[in-house]
Amino acid sequence: MKTIRQIGSVAFVLGLFTSVFAGIPWGIMTAYDPRVPWWLRIAVFCLLGGILLVLATLALEQRAHSVSAEDIPAAVPDGNVLLLNSDVVPGREIDEILGLVQGHTVYAVWLGKDLSAIVRLILGGELTEYTEMMGSARTTAIKRMTAAAAKMGADAVINVRYMTTSVVGSAAELLVYGTAVRFK
Question: Which of 61, 116, 154, 177 could form a disulfide linkage to 149, CB 3.0–4.6 angstroms apart?
Fold first, then answer.
């Protein structure tokens, strides 16, 4: 699937550059000639076909590899891991520091939500599309971190911190990390 997507990407780029850098000058020089040359037709078909191929493969991959809430491991089968953003737990004494645990995910919104967010950016108001995206990313990352802590036998994760970065376009990376500890 990845190879097909790369072929579509190459076809799109070649079609785009041929259409823009050769097709537009040709169209300007021969503005009164209604015939479109074969190479420009092929370039336009490559451009449109490449986009279609990339979108189709991405849709198939997303359907096959979509992460649902059930796919994320449960935090602890027999209890809960306490999450704190401080380094002390009132009334509890830390017996053992187990080490760093983290949860990580990269989320993006689909183009339709991205376009509606752009309109809302112009008109003003909360960008609910991105708010929902980051909420889902935070939930996924916390579940992954908590599962890692439970696997280590931790009672709590202290000094929990979040970090987010923009990957590309409207895609955001979210990392949550902390120190897994066991109580006395």
Answer: 154
State pLDDT tens for residues 14-44: 888 898 888 888 887 887 777 888 998 899 9
Average pLDDT of the residues in 70-94: 74
Per-domain boundaries in the chain: 2-64, 82-183
Q: Give pTM, 2 decimals.
A: 0.62
Contact criterion met (CB below 8 Å) for 95 and 135:
no
Please tell me the class of the 82-183 domain.
Answer: alpha beta
Please say if the pLDDT value at position 76 is more than 60. no
CA distance 18 to 40: 7
Q: Token digits for 183?
A: 């109580």
Residue 53 CB: number of other CB atoms within 10 A? 19
List strands edge to edge, sheet with 82-83.
Answer: 82-83, 156-168, 171-183, 94-107
**Structure token pair of residue 78:** 């027999």
Radius of gyration of the chain (CA): 25
DSSP 124: -
Specify the 3-state DSSP secondary structure of 87.
coil
